[in-house]
Amino acid sequence: MQSAAERVELWVGAAILLTAAGFLYWSTAGNSVARGLGSETYELRAAFPNVDGIEIGTDVRVAGVKVGRVSAVDLDPATYLAEAKLRIPSAIQLPTDSAALIQTDGLLGGSYIELQPGGAVDNLAPGDEIEDVQGAVSLLSLMMKFVDAQAGDDK
Q: Ranges for the Mce/MlaD domain (predicted)?
């Protein structure tokens, strides 16, 4: 026979395992399902001069809302640009003059790709390239420019 303490431990352990399974589901598939975006996606390309902080699995957002992920990042040996492949839901159709910008969440936050829809009549088709891009801005280089400017003012 089990004692009351053993039964409580069993139920607490089961609750912890169930909670862990729920978090696992939410972190993988549950996030897009909760938004009703479904599983139908298509891929767009964007060639950036600098993709610092962007890797496979990085968020793709529209108006601050996560709508997709980066599926690949490769170097184009002909242009030396970093080509990111963005997987977004088929329900989101972007105009051909849309822009892709690499943004950061605050000073110490991670990077993500922000898509800014344009106003063109035609939409990007699967596999098309977003032409209007802005690469990652290095915080360190901005701070060095500021320090250099301040040092120049002192002279």
A: 41-118
